[in-house]
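Customer escalation, tier 2.

The customer says the design service returned an amino acid string that "doesn't look like it belongs to this structure." They asked us to rerun it and document both sides in this ticket. The original structure tokens are below, unchanged.
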């Protein structure tokens, strides 16, 4: 992850479609690193003109503590974001209305102390954790994990603590791991699992992707009858997805994006329904590929045929429900 305010794609400007549409952006990051900064003013500059009422901040190894027990260092991120959340509680765009941090579930029962510390530090904004489980042969992923971690007994011992504390789990994985998240959801039916980036279909936008798409579709279909699993519709701007938009001098507009994204997103909605799907920005990571407005306009084009209540779910209500936002 290395995109920040320095990465501003050259996109043909287009007006915001349906600017009154209420949006809850359930997936963005924020950091302040040397030479690489994405902070509230940067997000608001991207949001400009879109009716984003609330956002959810997702763990990105930002502002971790540099000292103290290793398992407690992610608390620095929650402390960092709680200050921002408090500052924007009554703003037009409530940044970080929900905070999703990180805790190492492989700690087993011992993770309870970490989770409770996150909740104390988050002061009501803390909603859950993301423990990346993404693994693929010959591919370096965010917070590298071993294969099969979701099936690990210690991981599941830690995972069991989430439901007891009414915390959510953001699942960042790749499409070949979808059967594992389905197994996890069946084992813990009372714990809300939120699938990031449509389940990580690696190279879905590349030529000759039939095997990948077939595998991904089978995995998504396996989530259909698991009501505790929600799906974020977004993240296809990441280079790993294979569309190649990040390499273009002229970034795609909403018409092109909608055409490319529609098969993935409509399939998820067909399988799990609007009440379990939510559009996400994944900014600033996806910013290497397109602008915020082009992306949300593309989402609105994709949702054209849905009813008003279904659109409300996809753009706002599902995210608010899944994360238990006020």
């Amino acid at each position: 992850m290395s995109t920040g305010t320095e990465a501003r794609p050259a996109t043909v400007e287009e007006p915001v479609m349906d600017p009154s549409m209420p949006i809850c952006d359930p997936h963005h990051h924020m950091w302040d690193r040397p030479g690489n900064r994405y902070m509230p003013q940067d997000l608001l500059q991207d949001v400009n003109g879109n009716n984003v009422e609330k956002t959810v901040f997702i763990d990105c190894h930002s502002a971790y503590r540099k000292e103290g027990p290793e398992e407690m260092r992610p608390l620095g991120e929650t402390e960092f974001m709680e200050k921002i959340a408090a500052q924007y509680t009554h703003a037009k765009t409530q940044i970080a209305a929900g905070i999703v941090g990180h805790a190492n579930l492989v700690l087993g029962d011992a993770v309870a102390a970490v989770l409770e510390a996150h909740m104390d530090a988050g002061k009501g904004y803390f909603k859950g954790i993301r423990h990346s489980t993404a693994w693929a042969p010959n591919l370096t992923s965010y917070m590298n994990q071993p294969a099969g971690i979701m099936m690990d007994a210690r991981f599941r011992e830690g995972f069991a603590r989430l439901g007891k504390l009414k915390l959510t789990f953001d699942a960042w994985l790749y499409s070949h791991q979808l059967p594992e998240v389905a197994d996890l959801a069946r084992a813990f039916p009372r714990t809300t699992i939120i699938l990031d980036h449509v389940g990580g279909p690696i190279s879905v936008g590349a030529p000759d992707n039939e095997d990948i798409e077939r595998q991904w579709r089978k995995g998504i279909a396996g989530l259909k009858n698991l009501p505790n699993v929600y799906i974020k519709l977004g993240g296809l701007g990441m280079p790993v997805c294979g569309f190649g938009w990040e390499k273009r001098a002229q970034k795609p507009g909403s018409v092109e994006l909608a055409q490319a994204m529609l098969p993935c997103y409509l399939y998820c909605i067909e399988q799990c329904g609007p009440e379990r799907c939510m559009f996400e920005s994944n900014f600033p990571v996806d910013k290497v590929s397109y602008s915020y407005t082009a992306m949300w306009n593309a989402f609105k084009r994709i949702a054209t045929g849905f009813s008003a209540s279904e659109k409300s779910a996809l753009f706002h209500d599902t995210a608010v429900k899944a994360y238990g936002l006020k």
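Tier 2 assessment: The sequence is consistent with the input. The CA atoms of residues 148 and 200 lie 16 Å apart. The chain has one domain: 23-323. Sent an explanation to the customer and offered a walkthrough call.
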